[in-house]
């Protein structure tokens, strides 16, 4: 929102690299994943030395701090800036999906390119045009105002008990091929499925979507989040 701005004392050039780094730290922190130099390098597709330089700049600007375990964490001002970037990204995803029909496995990369160019005023117009949506196509909440880093990822599908009924609420969006595959199985936010069987020794998890049974390996079950309803 126009009123939710980062204080001037912590401003630094809003390059795409700065914004991508802050957004990635925000998302990984919300998923309780380690925010290490190597993890950020893998996700941002850059070298560890490049990430190290960026982390030092962001720390000097008061947007990041280093934890006792030498991991990156957002400061209060850094979190405010990151939420603004995340809001832009997820509103753009919602707009691309709802208004232009861009498939859910493509909106992340498209929004990633656009989020650094659109103005706050345009983002606010998109928000009003869409009716102030609460979530993007992957079920991720669209930040509004101040808040913490806990985005409520709920229960991961692989943790749902055998024989339970599971409501899909969010699907992690970093793997477009996995998103296409899951969509082909009918597994998207808003879908209710049944956990029917778990094969031993790291075998697949069997789920029933409608009348169809599907075997999901660990990489896929780690992407699907929601809540157990029965």
From TrEMBL:
<dbReference type="GO" id="GO:0003700">
    <property type="term" value="F:DNA-binding transcription factor activity"/>
</dbReference>
<dbReference type="InterPro" id="IPR036388">
    <property type="entry name" value="WH-like_DNA-bd_sf"/>
</dbReference>
<dbReference type="Pfam" id="PF01325">
    <property type="entry name" value="Fe_dep_repress"/>
</dbReference>
<keyword id="KW-0804">Transcription</keyword>
<keyword id="KW-0010">Activator</keyword>
<dbReference type="GO" id="GO:0003677">
    <property type="term" value="F:DNA binding"/>
</dbReference>
<comment type="similarity">
    <text>Belongs to the DtxR/MntR family.</text>
</comment>
<keyword id="KW-0408">Iron</keyword>
<dbReference type="InterPro" id="IPR001367">
    <property type="entry name" value="Fe_dep_repressor"/>
</dbReference>
<keyword id="KW-0678">Repressor</keyword>
<dbReference type="GO" id="GO:0046914">
    <property type="term" value="F:transition metal ion binding"/>
</dbReference>
<keyword id="KW-0464">Manganese</keyword>
<keyword id="KW-0963">Cytoplasm</keyword>
<feature type="compositionally biased region" description="Basic and acidic residues">
    <location>
        <begin position="130"/>
        <end position="141"/>
    </location>
</feature>
<dbReference type="InterPro" id="IPR008988">
    <property type="entry name" value="Transcriptional_repressor_C"/>
</dbReference>
<feature type="region of interest" description="Disordered">
    <location>
        <begin position="130"/>
        <end position="149"/>
    </location>
</feature>
<dbReference type="InterPro" id="IPR050536">
    <property type="entry name" value="DtxR_MntR_Metal-Reg"/>
</dbReference>
<comment type="subunit">
    <text>Homodimer.</text>
</comment>
<dbReference type="GO" id="GO:0045892">
    <property type="term" value="P:negative regulation of DNA-templated transcription"/>
</dbReference>
<dbReference type="InterPro" id="IPR038157">
    <property type="entry name" value="FeoA_core_dom"/>
</dbReference>
<dbReference type="InterPro" id="IPR022689">
    <property type="entry name" value="Iron_dep_repressor"/>
</dbReference>
<keyword id="KW-0238">DNA-binding</keyword>
<dbReference type="Pfam" id="PF04023">
    <property type="entry name" value="FeoA"/>
</dbReference>
<dbReference type="Pfam" id="PF02742">
    <property type="entry name" value="Fe_dep_repr_C"/>
</dbReference>
<dbReference type="InterPro" id="IPR022687">
    <property type="entry name" value="HTH_DTXR"/>
</dbReference>
<dbReference type="GO" id="GO:0046983">
    <property type="term" value="F:protein dimerization activity"/>
</dbReference>
<dbReference type="InterPro" id="IPR007167">
    <property type="entry name" value="Fe-transptr_FeoA-like"/>
</dbReference>
<dbReference type="InterPro" id="IPR036421">
    <property type="entry name" value="Fe_dep_repressor_sf"/>
</dbReference>
<dbReference type="InterPro" id="IPR036390">
    <property type="entry name" value="WH_DNA-bd_sf"/>
</dbReference>
<feature type="domain" description="Ferrous iron transporter FeoA-like">
    <location>
        <begin position="155"/>
        <end position="228"/>
    </location>
</feature>
<keyword id="KW-0805">Transcription regulation</keyword>
<protein>
    <recommendedName>
        <fullName>Manganese transport regulator</fullName>
    </recommendedName>
</protein>
<dbReference type="GO" id="GO:0005737">
    <property type="term" value="C:cytoplasm"/>
</dbReference>
